[in-house]
């Protein structure tokens, strides 16, 4: 049959000899490798058909626009105008919606819709972002003197600080002030000047910065709340505080002198504390010693009194024996560490001459022998035994 006769290659030529696959049937507008792109007269015909359809919507020459076309155009415009009210609020934002310029509502994050303009408009405000304003010290600032402030002791301080703030009420932030950032900066500078005007210079430059920052933040917040600015002051940080450049050296000299004075005062306090503590220790030691002596004296007195009472009782029982015992104990105690020569007074007619070495000091532990010269006179009747009673003989030391 002609339609499957491979011998007749047709207008597209014969297939390759090594390809025995059957090709699918091609449409008349397809070439040997695929569909043909319209070109030439076919492209012109396609544009002409499209133009006829478009012209059919608006009517022919002299007929004007058809009602359906006008309604379609108006509907499309209204749809686009209505869709223009769709907007998206980010998670860190709030949208302030106004109706003919007056505040209407505040919209939170998400996909939102408002009546298309000019009926309603939406202004997005970042309410969670932290904003920072640097005051003073900027090289290209319009007023470089903004960092020079007068202190309570009539000195000038060169102070630069930063203000961190955020928006806490989007509607008030948008409507209360014309330029919120400039308002925050002006309030910060005014509050800082007021606080610095009541604070001495030394306190600002040393240990009083925290107090100055706290007072300034509180004063700023109070002022902004009275304005209804919708701004919350997060914190104030003093970046630098010092004297003006023209008097830096003089202030350094004063600071060095103050440091020397503080050092001297600290040394004096250290010495005072040491001396006072030593005096307190000595006083405590003396008091304790006196208390110990008082206790010792009291107990010794009590012991002596008890001993005396006991001796008195014994004396009352045997007066002679007690008297003799007391005499012997006393003489023993007195004569224990002295050289002794005992001479009996019986039968003595001539003076007794003793050698000079008899009364020389001797070792108390060593025994005191009787001199041989004292025992050479047989007629003197010497005796080394002490008298039994105080009236039994005389003693010479």
In short:
The protein has 397 residues and is of the alpha+beta class. 43% of the residues lie in helices and 17% in strands.
Strand content: 15-25%
Order of helices and strands: HHEEEEEEEEHHHHEHHEE
* Broad structural category: alpha+beta
Oligomer class: single chain
Gyration radius, in Å: 64 Å
Mean pLDDT: 76
Give the total of beta strands: 11
Q: How far do the termini sit from each other?
A: 184 Å
Annotated CATH homologous superfamily of the domain at 132-242:
Band 7 domain
What is the name of the CATH topology of the domain at 132-242?
Answer: Tetrahydropterin Synthase, Chain A
- Largest beta-sheet details: 4 strands, antiparallel
Descriptive labels:
about 400 residues, alpha+beta, Tetrahydropterin Synthase, Chain A, four-stranded antiparallel β-sheet, three-stranded antiparallel β-sheet, 8 helices, disordered C terminus
Structure description:
With 397 residues, the chain is an alpha+beta fold. Among the domains are: 86-126, no CATH class; 132-242, Tetrahydropterin Synthase, Chain A (2-Layer Sandwich). It contains eight helices and eleven strands. Strands 6, 7, 8 and 9 form a four-stranded antiparallel beta sheet that branches. The chain has a three-stranded antiparallel beta sheet with strand order 3-2-5. The protein has a two-stranded antiparallel sheet with strand order 1-4. The termini are far apart.
């Amino acid at each position: 049959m002609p339609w499957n006769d491979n011998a007749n290659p047709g207008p597209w030529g014969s297939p390759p000899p090594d390809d025995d696959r059957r090709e699918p049937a091609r449409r008349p507008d397809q070439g040997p490798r695929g569909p043909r792109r319209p070109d030439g007269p076919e492209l012109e015909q396609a544009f002409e058909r499209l133009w006829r359809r478009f012209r059919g919507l608006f009517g022919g020459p002299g007929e004007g626009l058809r009602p359906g076309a006008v309604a379609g155009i108006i509907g499309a415009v209204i749809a686009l105008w209505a869709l223009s009210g769709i907007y998206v609020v980010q998670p860190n934002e709030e949208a302030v919606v106004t109706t003919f310029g007056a505040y209407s509502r505040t919209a939170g994050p998400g996909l939102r819709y408002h009546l298309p303009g000019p009926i309603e408009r939406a202004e997005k405000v970042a309410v969670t972002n932290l904003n920072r304003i640097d005051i003073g010290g900027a090289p290209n600032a319009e007023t470089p003197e903004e960092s020079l402030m007068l202190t309570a002791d009539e000195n000038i301080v060169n102070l630069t600080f930063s203000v961190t703030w955020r928006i806490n009420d989007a509607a008030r932030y948008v409507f209360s002030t014309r330029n919120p950032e400039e308002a925050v900066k002006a309030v910060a500078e005014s509050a800082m000047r007021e606080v610095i005007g009541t604070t001495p210079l030394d306190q600002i430059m040393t240990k009083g910065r925290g107090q100055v920052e706290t007072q300034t933040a509180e004063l700023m917040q109070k002022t902004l709340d009275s304005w209804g600015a919708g701004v919350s002051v997060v914190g104030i940080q003093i970046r630098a505080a010092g004297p003006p450049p023209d008097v830096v050296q003089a202030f350094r000299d004063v600071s060095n002198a103050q440091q020397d004075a503080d050092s001297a005062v600290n040394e004096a306090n250290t010495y005072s504390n040491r001396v006072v503590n030593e005096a307190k220790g000595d006083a405590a030691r003396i008091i304790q010693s006196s208390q110990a002596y008082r206790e010792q004296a009291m107990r010794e007195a009590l012991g002596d009194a008890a001993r005396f009472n006991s001796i008195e009782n014994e004396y009352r029982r045997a007066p002679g024996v007690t008297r003799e015992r007391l005499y012997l104990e006393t003489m023993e105690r007195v004569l224990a560490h002295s050289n002794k020569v005992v001479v009996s007074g019986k039968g003595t007619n001539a003076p007794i001459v003793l050698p000079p070495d008899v009364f020389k000091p001797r070792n108390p532990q060593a025994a005191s022998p009787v001199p041989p010269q004292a025992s050479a006179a047989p007629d003197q009747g010497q005796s080394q035994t002490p008298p039994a009673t105080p009236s039994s003989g005389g003693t010479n030391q």
